[in-house]
Each structure stands twice: as structure tokens, then as C-alpha cells.
Write a structure and sequence with these properties.
Shape: globular
Helix content: over 70%
Distance between the termini: 26 Å
Structural class: mainly alpha
């Protein structure tokens, strides 16, 4: 079999190798209990995407940025997300480790690229829960103005932090129940829109927004820029990898969870968003409302049904916040296990609660920082800023998907992507275009943080040697990390 054929057709597919066996092949032992089946993993992954929660929170930012161009931005975002998910599904099944993208990048592209990715994850891990929690506050205040959005959000984040300290099985059950409520809300919004279509397709084929009370053309550039925020809305399917060390059965399950839940999440978000966009009775009110999706329900069926949907929205956002906190707490814990940090920092971060096996230190850190951000930032500011880091990681994933096949053409792939090599090409190009349209301020901040991360890796980590990152050392021993 030629090397080129191995790269393009990936005939080394092992559908039966378990996640535990794959970890043994990679050379290290997991410290988590395997209590999740495929459905549990998918439930947590879809809850991390939280189609309704993300749409209700981050969708506000997409509409604010792109106006009527938000429909095209969401459609493009979902397409790119599926391409990214195909890459993640293949790589996640090959490297089913709790560090998620960070660990995978380390395996394929090496230590320095891994640490830059970890920097992006750290920013996501503290800003993204706050973004979703601010959504809780936004909808809670639409019911009662007794407290500010920030205070409502901080209270919600505090409750999420406590619940995230429970064992993973209990959290999977809880998020599954919340997820069922979330799907019901999606159906209500979609039905409210599609049963009363009022806006023609032509309205959404270009970007117009409300400026000083008038509908004004915004241009193609704002659509491309809004794609990154739309991608952030669909983001979260990488959670299937983050929970890999707690998932039973074949490593292939990790890839299934990532891809299937990305598709399900994207379809659900599009159903609700398109229904609301084409079914809004007033385009100007839809574009200027602080809660545009629930506005459509209220306009269609009245305040009572609208209030029920808002309560469901708060539950959906709460579910999202919980799943995201669970995911990033494990990623931060994995970085400590990999000895990325000096012992003074790393040892506390690597602690787990004996009773629930939850990484309690990293969970509390995420919770406290998110609470502070809730009290000081707006939802649009957090959503647009964190989106740049998310999309940057997509570029790394696209490059890793290509390089992994080139560097290990005969490697085992429990879940091989279809349509190779289109997914990584579309994912990479689409992500770069989206990043190119972000604000200079955000790009400068991101560039500076990445530069600091690279300096840290080139100095501290390099001085300590590659064995500082145990996953990187294992990969070298297996000959899987390029030099």
C-alpha cells in the first residue's frame, strides 16, 4: 500500500480499540473513573454546545454585529463547524485524552504549538462561562429588573460552580434533563417563526443593521467578521474529547460524539434562528431587541408563552454554563497533570476531590474568575473577544489533521473522517478569513498573549526539557511527534 493511499484513504481504521487501550498505547494512565457511556458523553457534549443557550446568548452578539447578515453568518458558521468537527473526530479518537485540543496539538505538532493552544483554552475557559452566564442575567432581567444583569449572572455562575463539583455521572444526568427542556424551547421558537413567515429571503441575503433608527447597509465584511462569533455559538463539540478519559468502550465513541453532536447542535440552532429571523413581525424590533428570539415568540403568542420560553432559556443557559465549566476544569487539570506549570502552581491545579473525583481547584478558579467578569463586562464584548481564541484553535486543528496523516500515514484511526482532505482545508481557510475581520484591538491582545505563551514555552518548558510535558514525552517515545 502506497504512503499516498494511506494518507488519503486511511485504511488503518480500528473500530474496536477501547479508549483505555488507546491510552495504554500512548503510554500513560488515566486518573478518572470511566462512568460515561456513549449517550452520557453525547449528552454532556450537546449540553456543552447547548444549542438554545448559545443561540440565546451569543446569537445576540451575531445579530448586533451583522444585522440581517446574521443568517448568512450562521449558515457559514455551521458549515465550517462541521468541517472542524470532522477533523476533531478523527484526531480525538486517535488521542482520547482529557486535555482535548491542547493535548492533541501537543501530540501532533509538538510542545510549543500545544502551549499556544493551551493559552487560547485558558482564555476561553474563563471568558466563555462568563459569556453564557451573562446570557442568564440578560434573560433573568427581562423577567425582573430587581437586580442588574451582572448580579443575576454572578449568582447563576456561583450555583454552576457548586454543581460542577459533583461527580460526572450526576452532572451528565442533570445536563441531560436540562437538555430535554432546551430542545422543547428550540421547537417552540422554530414553530413560532415558521408558522408565521413574514420576511422574504431577500432581506437576509445582505447585511443591513439599524443605525440611528434607520436600516443601513453594513457591507460584506461584517458578515465575515460575524462568522467567528457564529462559530463560537456552535462551538463545544470538542467536549466529547475532554470527557474521553471518563467514557467507556471503543475510542471510536469519542469521534462519534464530537461529529454527531456538532451536526445535531448546528441543525437545532439553525432551526430556531432561521424560524425567528423569517418569522419576526417587525425587522427593526428584531434587530434592536435585547432578546430577539424570545421577542418573536411573544409577538406571535403573547407574554405568557413568551415568559415560559424565557424561563426555559434561562434553564438552557444554566445547562450550558455547567457543561462548559465541567469541560474546561478538566482541560486545566490536564495541563497540570502534564507538568506544564511550576510545581507551586501545578500541584494545586492537579488535585481532585476524593469523593466525586472532580478537579475541584480548577473548577473553583474558573467559577471565581467568571463571577468577576460577569460583574464587569458585557455579553457582546466577551463573545467577540473569546471567539478569536476559539477560531485560532480551529486553525491549529486543521493543520494538525493534515500533518497527522502525513507524519503517521499508517497510524491507527478509530474514527476516520470522510471527504478528506476537504474538511481541514475548508476549516482552515474559513477560520483564517473569519479571524481577518476581527477588531485590531482584539487581534493585538490575542497576538500578545500568544507571543507570551510561546516565550514561556521556549524558555521555561524548553529549559526543563520535553519531559516536562508528559504527554509530549510519550508521543516522542512513540515517534508520533514531529521535531
Amino acid at each position: 500500500m502506497s504512503t499516498m493511499r494511506q494518507i488519503f484513504f486511511s485504511e488503518h481504521v480500528d473500530k474496536d480499540v477501547t479508549g483505555e487501550e488507546r491510552l495504554e498505547q500512548l503510554g500513560y494512565e488515566s486518573h478518572f473513573d470511566r462512568r460515561l457511556n456513549l449517550w452520557g458523553n453525547m449528552s454532556l457534549t450537546l449540553s456543552d454546545i447547548t444549542p438554545m443557550g448559545s443561540l440565546l446568548a451569543i446569537g445576540i452578539a451575531v445579530i448586533a454585529l451583522a444585522g440581517t447578515g446574521s443568517v448568512i453568518a450562521y449558515l457559514a458558521g455551521v458549515i465550517i463547524a462541521v468541517m472542524v468537527a470532522l477533523c476533531m473526530a478523527e484526531l480525538g479518537s486517535i488521542y482520547p485524552v482529557s486535555g482535548g485540543i491542547y493535548s492533541i496539538i501537543g501530540k501532533v505538532l509538538g510542545q510549543h504549538a500545544a502551549f499556544v493552544t493551551l493559552v487560547a483554552y485558558i482564555v476561553e475557559g474563563v471568558f466563555l462561562p462568563a459569556t453564557i452566564a451573562l446570557g442568564i442575567g440578560t434573560y433573568a432581567q427581562s423577567l425582573s429588573t430587581a437586580l442588574s444583569i451582572g448580579v443575576y449572572s454572578a449568582i447563576g455562575m456561583a450555583i454552576v460552580t457548586v454543581l460542577a463539583l459533583m461527580n460526572i455521572q450526576s452532572n451528565a444526568l442533570m445536563t441531560g434533563i436540562f437538555l430535554a427542556i432546551e430542545v422543547i424551547i428550540i421547537v417552540i421558537i422554530a414553530v413560532a417563526g415558521f408558522t408565521n413567515l413574514t420576511q422574504p429571503i431577500s432581506v437576509y441575503t445582505h447585511a443591513d443593521g439599524m443605525v440611528n433608527g434607520k436600516l443601513t447597509s453594513l457591507g460584506l465584511g461584517v458578515i465575515v467578521g460575524a462568522v467567528s462569533v457564529a462559530l463560537q455559538s456552535v462551538n463545544g463539540y470538542d467536549a466529547g474529547i475532554a470527557f474521553a478519559e471518563e467514557t467507556t468502550g471503543p475510542a471510536r465513541r469519542v469521534g462519534k460524539s464530537v461529529l454527531y453532536m456538532c451536526i445535531v447542535g448546528g441543525v437545532l440552532e439553525l432551526a430556531a434562528f432561521l424560524g425567528a429571523a423569517f418569522g419576526t413581525p417587525s425587522l427593526s424590533k428584531f434587530l434592536t431587541s435585547s432578546t430577539p428570539l424570545t421577542y418573536v415568540v411573544k409577538a406571535r403568542w403573547g407574554d405568557t408563552v413568551g415568559t415560559i420560553v424565557v424561563v426555559g432559556a434561562i434553564i438552557a443557559l444554566f445547562n450550558a454554563c455547567l457543561a462548559i465549566t465541567l469541560q474546561f476544569a478538566r482541560i486545566f487539570w490536564a495541563s497540570a497533570r502534564d507538568k506544564v506549570w511550576p510545581d507551586l502552581i501545578g500541584k494545586p491545579l492537579s488535585r481532585t476531590w476524593a469523593r466525586t473525583h472532580a478537579p475541584w481547584v480548577t473548577t473553583l478558579i474558573i467559577g471565581v474568575i467568571a463571577i468577576i467578569l460577569c460583574l464587569s463586562l458585557s455579553i457582546v464584548a466577551t463573545a467577540t473577544f473569546v471567539a478569536v481564541f476559539t477560531i485560532a484553535n480551529y486553525v491549529f486543528i486543521a493543520v494538525a489533521a493534515i500533518w497527522q496523516r502525513i507524519s503517521s500515514p499508517d497510524g491507527v484511526r478509530p474514527f476516520a473522517m470522510i471527504l478528506w482532505p476537504l474538511p481541514p482545508i475548508i476549516a482552515g481557510v474559513g477560520s483564517l478569513l473569519a479571524i481577518s475581520k476581527q477588531t485590531y484591538t482584539d487581534l493585538i491582545i490575542v497576538g500578545c498573549l500568544f507571543a507570551l505563551g510561546l516565550i514561556y514555552s521556549l524558555t521555561y518548558l524548553r529549559r526543563k526539557g520535553l519531559n516536562t510535558m508528559t504527554l509530549m514525552a510519550d508521543a516522542e517515545q512513540l515517534g508520533e511527534t514531529p521535531r
